[in-house]
Amino acid sequence: MPNYRIIVDLSDRRLYLLDGDVVTRAFPVGIGKMLTVTPTGEYRIINKQPNPGGPFGVFWMGLSKPHYGIHGTNDPSSIGHMVSHGCIRMYNQDVIELSTLVPIGTRVTIRP
């Protein structure tokens, strides 16, 4: 049984999926802009919702910090940039893949 955790590295704008201490996947992400930075720290995925609507693309995974999550986007050109209100944006196909692998309760570390 995999022991998944997520590390979001804001400096290189990538989300890493680890099984134990081994990186199994890496995805490009969009992060918060200067006035609405993505918060660093230790969180957990507390809910999942397909097709949340609006700018959240095809999937939403809420974090234990209220109002923040990992989600898809309706603007794929924003990936790799500092554009969000603090959430972590992924390409829709990437967030679907990630959501099938990680259960609710998965640890998410966001580091500068």
From TrEMBL:
Looking up InterPro entries in the UniProt record yields: LD-transpeptidase, LD_TPept_cat_dom, Transpep_catalytic_dom
- Keywords for this protein: Cell shape, Cell wall biogenesis/degradation, Glycosyltransferase, Hydrolase, Peptidoglycan synthesis, Transferase
Gene3D superfamilies to which the protein is assigned, alphabetical = L,D-transpeptidase catalytic domain-like
Pathway membership of this protein?
Cell wall biogenesis; peptidoglycan biosynthesis
Protein origin, superkingdom: Bacteria
Biological processes, Gene Ontology terms:
cell wall organization; peptidoglycan-protein cross-linking; regulation of cell shape
Q: Which residues form the active site?
A: 71 (proton donor/acceptor), 87 (nucleophile)
| One function term, GO molecular function aspect | glycosyltransferase activity
UniProt cross-references to CDD domains, sorted A to Z: YkuD_like
- Stretches assigned to the L,D-TPase catalytic domain: 4-111
Quick one: a GO cellular component term? extracellular region
Record Pfam families: YkuD (PF03734)
Family named by the database record: Belongs to the YkuD family.
Question: What is the name listed in the Swiss-Prot or TrEMBL entry for this protein?
Answer: L,D-transpeptidase-like protein
Origin organism lineage: Bacteria, Bacillati, Bacillota, Bacilli, Bacillales
